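Components:
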Amino acid sequence: MIITISSQNNSLESAPSLRFGRAPYFIKYNLSDDTWEALQNAAVNERGGAGIAASQFIIDNESNAALSGHFGPNAARVLSQAGIKMISFDETYQTVQSVIDAYKENLLNEVSF
Amino acid sequence: MVPIKIAVASGKGGTGKTMVATSLAVCLAEIHSVQILDCDVEAPDTHLFLKPTITENQPATLLLPQIDEYLCTTCGICVDNCVYHALAKAGDKILVFPQLCHGCGSCQLLCPEKAITEMPREIGQINLGETDSGIRFGMGELTISEPMGTPIIHQLKKYSDEAREFIILDSPPGASCSVVATLYNTDYVLLVTEPTPFGLHDLKQMIGVLSVLDIPGGVIINRDGIGDNQVENFLTGTPYPILMRIPFHAEIAQGLARGQVLVDFSPNYSEQFNMLYENIINIVEHRRLLPQS
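Structure:
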């Protein structure tokens, strides 16, 4: 199972990003072996359609779930069509690692549209 | 004879573009043939002053891709090439986002399966007519919730009456795509500003646009007497002269609030507008005689 977390920067110690489409980085994390990589979000500076472009990026990177603070309606339409789970976290999480830990402990909620 | 096309723009909103455009049209129409096009498609208001009789109504449309799911192999070439992100490939489906689509047609051209056709989607209206004094009138109106006004402006400008001596274009505020769409191919731009820091800030942006488009222009200072001298100081030494000053008077605000044209309720401005357009004619005709660079 691969999850992708929106992040302000490129490590597990980075602050997570509450914004999905315009998050500077995505941390792609493999739950089966705890390997991860930081991916730069090319959509961050798009004039429009950032949520759609970021969703496409998540799909193309073969993630099973996207974790962010908030998903816009366009992103939600793309991700749900692709069968990717949307999981939301709030501003209480200080690091990407803490979001991953919370997800593992089933403390985060799946967003439904 | 090619018409002289004069756009009225401002940068900052609410500086008096429509007041100037309608007064200019009314003054010109006394001895010339005139058309006015209201390109402020998000909030058109020229008709409130000129009260034209609308005789023709056309839908303004944008072409939107339709994907034939039987022909589509979800290869994703259309998605990769859509710079506006109006397409996404999710699972076994291509999703279309109508409000992000600019109608450029790339997806249809590039689809190897010919699975994409384009269908017109209505995004607004174009109203055409004439005023009692014989000014030909056109306005675009963007449907509420639609995000993109420029296609309507392009379509409205196709109704330019090339047999008229003058075409006045009332521009939207700002200095972005819809303003550029309005100003493109015009001969002269009247910049209406107010003597405030905000007026100056946006005036500078508009002058930047004019210099890139290489269109001559001049400035009308509205609400003269308020604010400061920064606009005047800035314009000194630029090729954009101050052509007119309209003072900050309650009578002007009252007249406009009644839906009247400035030169109709304050006829003393007619002479100034007549001088203004004579000036513009000279500049435009002089430029037309110059060899094209």
